[in-house]
Structures are given as structure tokens and as C-alpha cells.
């Protein structure tokens, strides 16, 4: 398409150039040809004029189309169009006005020059010269006529037989070139000649014969090549009986010096009169030629103005367009101009600026992306670290609050972000010690540590705060406060200590248990039959007690081992509903127990260690059954569900008993090993459950259900 | 007439019609006859417009051209009429042959011009196409250009075929 447009432009350019050249040639030829004496191109004038008109029409059409296109561009407010139009009018004003002035001036000058050629003295002199010539010729003609009439009179007195003799005599007397007598039928009756070129008399023209018949004699001037001669005729009147109609014809020479003078006068007068006659035509021709040239100049000026203004404005239009594009965020380079001027320099500078802007924007976008990635990374870190983080800006407004902080403070981030610290304290009165202390520390420049007790919180807790001043982008001083639940930290430390105790206990206790059990059983086998019944009974009960207590100790030691040496879970995809069904099947033999099952439809797939999850379920069910040990008809409710949460889906397993419920001070977050609310509990069951859930990225929730009893819920990512 | 001139004449026709509203011709071919000495001769009727007569008297030579086509051959003859102010005579000249003749009156000169011998054998029997017109291209330069737009200078008999009806 681009090449076709280029060709079209080239074609139009060639047509325009050819038109201008043709008009120029036509104008020049006409101007040259029409002012010289004879028009060499006269036969081609109509064709030349028609050709000029056609070419001018074509040129005018091209120009009109371009002007129309420009007007449409102005109306459409295309970049550069208005400037283009203004430049065009300016160039036209510069070109057209002087051309018109020149045209009028030239026409006036030429008309004046033409008129000045016909000065009155010249006209008068030529007329006088012509009159002199005419008088001379008239005189000569009268002499010739008189001489010829004299010859005729002399001949009329002589018999025709003597006419030849008389002519021979008279020719020298009258200094004629030729003298002859012609009969009415044109035959020569007698003749004499003084010049070899005039030997035989010519028959006189009919018009002379007619004049002769009325006047009796006549004489005319005739041209013979470059010479002039006088032909005179006279009737020979010899009476009615003689040859009626005989005519004397004499040819007299005009002096040779006179002939060229007469020719020159004739020619000069003819040409002068011709010029005078052609004066009007000459003016019309000049007006036509000058008009043609003016039209050519105007059309060429218009075309050049169109092209020139477009050429001047095109880079400006491109610049305007590219500038608008930059406003839209599109950075593009303009074609490198071939012109070596300020506009070219401007385009080059613009390209450089555009390139630098593009580079800077790409740099900014890259840094922005990096910043976003870092921010996302920081958000991910903040969201997943166990420590709570709160950030304040220079005016004390909350800028940052991570998930751990939300959980620990029991607030919703959406309500807190952007709020001032005092407002946060007002909205959550239990947090006032926390907000007040941070407010007091907000002006501290360095790191600081504090412990704050939230006695009004449920449950009451102590927070360990670590603060650090941060310089805001706007120069303000903000604060970043990292805080933890002091109880949880202590619990962690205690858990680690307990794990060490459990490991050592398991190691120290487990080893002697088997020998004790074996020894008790051997004592029983060896001495039970030998002892009297009373002693045997004592032995039986004592060894039974020993064996059963050893079994209990083994169970306890195994639990210690599980707590002390946690293994990383072996995660596979398992169906939660199926697992719940498997576990519950083991309790189906208990006729007293009534199980209510409410499983979610379909299957809930989770990534988890099946053995550990089975252990968790056993622990929960066993706890529930133990809690209902005093009830005559224990009722166990087990259910599963899938709940949509912010960052995905969570699978939930609920185990509910209908026993007395959890103690009032029970805090699932404060579970510690070896502390049990049950008389025979090891205090490890829920702690192990909690640990296993944490290993799976889940959590344990506990509470008292409406209508009595307690519920324990397992939450796992689904 | 040259082919360029013919094309020019054709192109001019449209221009002349627009500029002048139609051309008025003052020359008409009346007859083609055989003279007593067996020569084929055209009989014309010439009616010179006043402007042209004025031009003739003011020294403008009037060139007339006769184009003839017979037996597939073309030929062109020219005759020129001019006024000689010194002798007050009208001169009829044939540039090709150099023959010239002077006449005391315009009527005599026009009468001579109205008899135009054709270069054909006296016993020629075929069709003859003839056109007689004023040769504007040979007018003096300034007049040649302005005459394009002046119908007084458009003398043209048009093409006449003789005998009538033949092509």
C-alpha cells in the first residue's frame, strides 16, 4: 500500500511537472511567436490554446482537490492542518499579489509601448512619401498616356501599311520599351521593340480594354519582377471605313532607381498600416499571452505553496501527533528527516527526548514491578510470620496490620487500617493499654521494648512489644511495632522443656518396665500354685496390679514418646468423610453410644498424613466419650463441612459431646502438656492434636455448644 | 493542411463554438465546371467581412487555401491577395508558382479569386472533395492569435464533394 501511494504521489508530481513545463513552453513559444512578423506556429495556435486550457484545467483540478483535502483536514482538526492553511494563505498572498501587480503593470507598459510605435510624425512622413510616390507615378503615367495618344493620332493619319515604319521611328522618340498596334481580335498589326525582353506585345487585360472603350486612352503601372513598367493604351481613330478597334499599346520603363524606392515605400506603408491595424490584435495577443503566463505563475505558485506549506508543516504535524501520543503513554520515534534545518533538528531532539522518556518509563515500570514484588513478598512474610506487626505513619495512623496482629488483638484489619491509634483504642477499649503505650513511644527515635498487659481482654494476656522508628517517604517519622503473646512465648519454651522431660522420662521409664512386668508374671507363675489360697490371692492381686500398672505406664511412655519426638507428616490425598467413617466404625461395638453423623455431601479431599489424622480423630472421640462417661446414654455428634475463606477453602471436622462441657477457664490457646481436667488424663491428648494440626497448616478450635456439651473442631486447608 | 493543423482545427471547433457561438463562413463553393479550354475550375462565392476588407486595405495579406482530394491524392493550392498602397492596386499571387496579377479594383481581384483552376485533367470523371478557407495560420502573428477568437476571420467553405452526394 505504501509503495502504491508513493507511486501515485510520483505520478501526480510528474503530471504537475509536465503540465507546468508544457504551459511554460506554450507560453514562451506563443510570446515569442506572436510578436514577430509572421506566426510560425500560427496553424497550431488553436491546438496549443486547447492544450494549455486542458493542462491548466488538470492542474487546477489537482490543486482544487488538494485544497479540498486541506479544508477537510482543517475541519477535522487534524494535527498541523490549521498551520498548513495559514502558511498556504500567507504564501499565496506573497505570490499572488505581486503577480497581479506585475501583470497589470506589464500589460499597461506593453500597451503603451505598442501605442507609442505609431507616432503622428512617422505616420505623416509615410503618408507624404506615399503621396510623393503616387504623384511621380501619376506624372509618369500621364506622360505615357499622352505619348501613346500622340502615337495613335499619328498612326490615324497614316495608312496601316506605314504603321510599322512609323512605329520604328517613334519608339526612340518616346523612349518606350515596346510599341505595338493590336487589332480587336488581339492580333498584332505592327510592333516595335527597344528591349529584347519586350519583343512581342501582350494582349491587354480585359479591364484595360473596358476602360479604353470608355475613356479612349488608359495607362497603368505594372510590376515585372522587381521592376516597374507603365502600360498605356490608346485607340487609333482612322474613320469608320478603316480598321475599327485597333489599339496602340506602349510599354514605358520606370527609371530603375525609382522601382526599389517605390517598393520600399509600398512595403513600409503596407507594414506600417498593417501594424496600425493589428494594434488592437497585438494588445489582445499580449493580454492572452500574459494571462496565460499569469495563470501559469498563479497555478504554479498555488501548487508550490500547497506543497511547500505541507512540507514545512508535516514535521510539525508529526510532532504534534507524537506529542499527543506521548500524552497517551505511547512513545514512538518520528522518521529521521532528510532536511538539514531547524525543523529537522527539532525532530531529532524530539526523538531523543521520546527515547529518553520511554527509557525512563520502562525503568520506572521495572522498579515499580520490583517494588510490587517486594511488597508482595513482604505481605506474604507478614501474613505468615507468627509475630504480630503493626505499622504507623507519621500522623499516628495505622498503615499496616498483619494477620497475626489481627488475631492477637482480635480486630478486623479493614476497620483499623487508616484509623488513628486513639480511634483504635476508642473502638476497642480492651486494647487501650496497648494503643496508649505505642502512642507514648511514637516519638522515640531508637528501638524500644515494652511489655503490656491487656487485663480487660478475653482471655487476659500480656504482649511483648518491640518498636522501631521508621522514616516515612514524606519525611515523617513512623513506627513499626512487632509484638507477641508473652504467654504463647512462655508456652513454647515450656513445651520445649516438657518435650525434653518426656524424652528423658520415656527413656528412663520404658527400659525397666518390661523386666518388671516379666518378673511379676514369673513370680505369679512360680508361686501361685505353691502358696496357700489366702497368700495366692494376695499374690494374684499384687502381680495383676503390677502388670496392669506397667501397661498403664507403657501407654503413658508411648504418649511421651509421641510428644517428644514428632515426625514430619507424610502428606497424601485422603478423603475426610471416608476417614471419619473408618474411625467411627471402631466405636460401633459400644451399644450404649449413640453416634449422630452429619457428613458433607460428596467427599472432602485434604492433603494430610492419614495415620496422624486418624490419631487425632481417635483422640477427639475418646475425649468426647470420656467426657460422657457418667451419662447413661452418651450421644456423640460428628460432622464434616467445607467452608470458603478469604484465601481458599477450609475443611472442618466437628466432634461434639453432650457432657458437662468445658471448664469456664478453658483456653485452647493455653493448652499445656500434663495438665488435664480429667482425673486419669495424661494432659497430652489435645496438645498432640494441636501439634498435629499445626504440622498440617490447620488449627484446633474448642468451645461449648449451645444446648450443652463441648465441641472440638479441626480446620484443615481443603 | 498538415495533420497537426487538422487536429488543431478539430480541437478548436469546440473552443470556437463556445467563444463565438458558431462560425460564420464568407466563402462558398458554388460550382465545379469545365472551362472552354478544358480546365476544371471551381466557382466560389466570396463575401469578405468588413473587418477583413479593412485589414486587406491596411496591408494584411489574405491567404486562401484550397484543399483537394481526388483519386486518393491530396493537393493543396494557395493564393494570396494583398493591397498595394502606392499603386492602389490589388495583387493576386500564387506563392508556389510566383505568378501574380494586379487589379485596379477589389471586385476585379475577388472575381479573379472566385475562379480557382484545379490541377486536374479536363476529362476527370471521379469524385472531387474540395475545401476552401482562409489560412489563419499565415496571418501576421498578433492577428493569428486573436483571430482564433474572432469569427470575422473564420472563412471556411467546409468540405464539399463534387458531384454532390458522392464520397
UniProtKB/TrEMBL annotation, chain A:
The keyword DNA repair does not apply. Its EC number is 2.7.13.3. Residues 504-718 form the Histidine kinase domain. It is a multi-pass membrane protein. Gene3D superfamilies: 1.10.287.130, 6.10.340.10, Histidine kinase-like ATPase, C-terminal domain, PAS domain. Keywords: ATP-binding, Kinase, Membrane, Nucleotide-binding, Phosphoprotein, Transferase, Transmembrane, Transmembrane helix, Two-component regulatory system. The keyword Nucleotide-binding applies. SUPFAM superfamilies: ATPase domain of HSP90 chaperone/DNA topoisomerase II/histidine kinase, HAMP domain-like, Homodimeric domain of signal transducing histidine kinase, PYP-like sensor domain (PAS domain). One of its GO terms (cellular component) is membrane. It comes from the Bacteria. PROSITE patterns: HAMP, HIS_KIN, PAS. It catalyses: ATP + protein L-histidine = ADP + protein N-phospho-L-histidine. Residues 374-418 form the PAS domain. It holds the Pfam family HAMP. This is histidine kinase. It comes from Pseudofulvimonas gallinarii. The lineage of its organism: Bacteria, Pseudomonadati, Pseudomonadota, Gammaproteobacteria, Lysobacterales.
From TrEMBL, chain B:
It comes from the Bacteria. InterPro entries: DUF4390 (IPR025500). Pfam families: DUF4390. This is Uncharacterized protein DUF4390. It comes from Pseudofulvimonas gallinarii. The lineage of its organism: Bacteria, Pseudomonadati, Pseudomonadota, Gammaproteobacteria, Lysobacterales.
